[in-house]
Amino acid sequence: MDSSPPSKRRRHTKDAEFESSSTIQNSSPVVIFAHGAGAPSSSDWMQRWKTMLKDALQAVDVVTFDYPYMSGAKKRAPPKAEKLVEFHSNIVKEAATKYPGHPLILAGKSMGSRVGCMVAATLKDINVSAVLCLGYPLKGINGAVRDETLLQLTVPTMFVQGSKDNLCPLEKLEATRKKMKPCNELHVIDGGDHSFKIGKKHLQANGSTQDAAEAVALQAIAAFISKSLE
User: Fold this and answer.
1) Rounded to an integer, what is the distance from CA 160 to the centroid of its chain?
2) Counting beta carbons within 10 angstroms of the beta carbon of residue 166, is it exposed (0 to 12), middle (13 to 18) or buried (19 or more)?
3) Which of 9, 99, 133, 192 has its C-alpha lying 20 to 30 A from 65's C-alpha?
4) What distance, in Å, lies between the first and last C-alpha atoms of the chain?
5) Which phi and psi (to 5°) does residue 3 adopt?
6) What digits encode the pLDDT tens for the residues 71-105?
7) Which of 175, 180, 201 is CA-nearest to residue 190?
């Protein structure tokens, strides 16, 4: 029989309940979601995917931001991805400070995913739980395969690619994935372009819809992130 005073037993029970509640709350990830080269975080695509990712991952927050070249009245061309790493890293550090104890997921659209991978590969004082690449631009302007950053990664990495994305030939990505160090996964949106847009004829031929195809992708994302956080 437990001879501990009743008040002490109750205090232990409350502590256990608090710790359990805290663990559940802190398991909710924070997603830092970077935009692509041509459109800001306020674009319809970014806002729609921000909402879908928050719901699919049960995220405590999805943090979006604009790189400096995107701000201001005059639109400027994006600089080399390497020049955006420091700014992106600072956003990640701010999120880590605001949400201590929550897993950090670095997500990005096209260029934003490439910069996110660079950040994940170089951050030393903050733990990144996973990287999510939405339309990774594996092929550069000159046609060369840009796989150096991916081969430096050590955190779980998820790719979502359209099968008709000219910036990421799937056979090239498969070859790169085999050489990557961490666990990684690819979900292909059949008929999708660089922004996952599927042509009407393709949708009709397959009896599908854009929303349905993206819903399946979100399920795959959620499953991968869940495994990565175990």
Assistant:
1) 10
2) exposed
3) 192
4) 36
5) -95, 5
6) 876 778 899 999 999 999 999 999 999 999 999 99
7) 201
